[in-house]
């Protein structure tokens, strides 16, 4: 992998990047560069890739018989928000790339850079919550266990 300063994020095929490499990329980017990436044309492709892989990183044994709908609101510049929903049920995790009429047990809202840090193992949910970079509504206990339900890279 090229040095992060030389990495062309605008043309990088995030679909070909393994989760551990993605975690290293996120860790190595400055806050300004990460924000610029997520305010640019790659934003939706990066989010779609992350959410599209969630089912492959899901740990059914950790979730047990949990049945929960989680709504993710990824905020952006000038109100350009993206909403995804993950449904954990019957040992599986399915993703919807839009808001549905279903009522979530948990809603999470955060800026795109913080979301990428969270899902790549570069930030903790409690830290983001206590620094007001993550807003929660609903089942706080579910929020506390959410990262245990997925195989998140260790960086």
From TrEMBL:
Coiled-coil stretches: none
Gene3D superfamilies assigned: SCP2 sterol-binding domain
Domain (SCP2) ranges: 69-144
Highest taxon of the lineage: Bacteria
Originating species: Actinacidiphila rubida
Pfam family, any one: SCP2
Full protein name: SCP-2 sterol transfer family protein
SUPFAM superfamilies in UniProt: SCP-like
């Amino acid at each position: 992998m090229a040095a992060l300063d030389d990495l062309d994020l605008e043309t990088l095929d995030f679909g070909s990047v393994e989760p551990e490499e993605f975690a290293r990329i996120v860790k190595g980017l400055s806050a300004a560069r990460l924000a610029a990436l997520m305010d640019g044309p790659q934003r939706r492709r990066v989010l779609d890739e992350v959410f599209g892989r969630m089912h492959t990183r899901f740990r059914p044994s950790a979730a047990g018989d949990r049945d929960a709908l989680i709504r993710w609101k990824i905020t952006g510049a000038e109100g350009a928000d993206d909403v995804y929903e993950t449904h954990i049920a019957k040992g599986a995790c399915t993703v919807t790339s839009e808001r549905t009429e279903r009522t979530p047990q948990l809603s999470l809202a955060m800026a795109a850079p913080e979301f990428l840090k969270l899902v790549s193992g570069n930030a903790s949910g409690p830290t983001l919550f206590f620094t007001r970079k993550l807003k929660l509504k609903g089942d706080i206990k579910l929020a506390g266990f959410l990262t245990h339900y997925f195989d998140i890279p260790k960086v």
